[in-house]
Amino acid sequence: MDPAPANGQVLDAGDDTVHVEQAAKALDVSRRTVERMIERGELERDTRHDNAAAVTKRSLVAALQERRGATRRRVAPSHELAGLLASLERLTDTLADERRQLVAASEDRRRAERDREEARIEVAQLEAARQVAADRLTAEQQARAQSEVARQAATERLGQLASAGWRKRRRILHELRRQAI
Q1: What's the CA gap between 61 and 7, in Å, rounded?
Q2: Who's near 33: CB < 8 A, 6+ residues apart?
Q3: Structural domains for the chain
Q4: Are the CB atoms for 55 and 34 separated by under 8 Å?
Q5: Where does the chain have alpha helices with state H?
Q6: What is the pTM assigned to this prediction?
Q7: Of the candidates 6, 102, 121, 137, which has an alpha carbon nearest to the alpha carbon of residue 60?
């Protein structure tokens, strides 16, 4: 049984080739579309004769059957459409849930980054405060060392004053007054 082309013409069963124009009418497409179908391998060009503008009847019948099957497959029953709609709604809900999770994770990452930055600032401030305290301690230790040197010098002079005669005491006191000025 030969399938009928879309325009109602019946293909002759004994004819092995069909002209490209007839194939275009049977498929209800343009001649250029038939040429593209040949290029894609959907139709076979007749290579037995010198007629380059012909396709094999077998490939045309297969293309017509494929088109009819595709048309039948496109029409889905309403229960299938309802199932597809339910699947689509579930998919939409799942995508919305995943989006919410991604947004929450992104917020958590931003919050953690802010916390890390604040911690870095705090560490820098603490390091600066530690450095200031260390500088003060060093300055205080130097001042104490200078005081100790001065105390030792004063103790030594007091010892010299106690053991010296009146002329030497007078000269030491005169030096002390000059250093104080």
Answers
A1: 14
A2: 24, 27
A3: 17-74 (1.10.1660)
A4: yes
A5: 20-27, 31-40, 57-74, 78-163, 166-180
A6: 0.37
A7: 6
CA gap 41, 56 in Å, rounded: 12
Task: Please report how the helices 78-163 and 166-180 are oriented relative to each other, as an axis angle in degrees rounded to 10.
Answer: 150
DSSP secondary structure string, 12-30? PTT--EEEHHHHHHHHTS-
Token digits of residue 33: 């579309």
Residues across the chain: 181
Amino acid sitting at position 93? D
User: For residue 48, how many other CB atoms are within 10 A of its CB?
Assistant: 9
Q: What is the pLDDT of residues 59-110, one digit of tens each?
A: 888 888 888 776 555 555 677 778 888 888 999 999 999 999 999 999 999 9
Rg over CA atoms, the chain: 53
**AA letter at 6:** A
Q: What single-letter amino acid sits at 48?
A: R
Tokens of 114: 């802010």
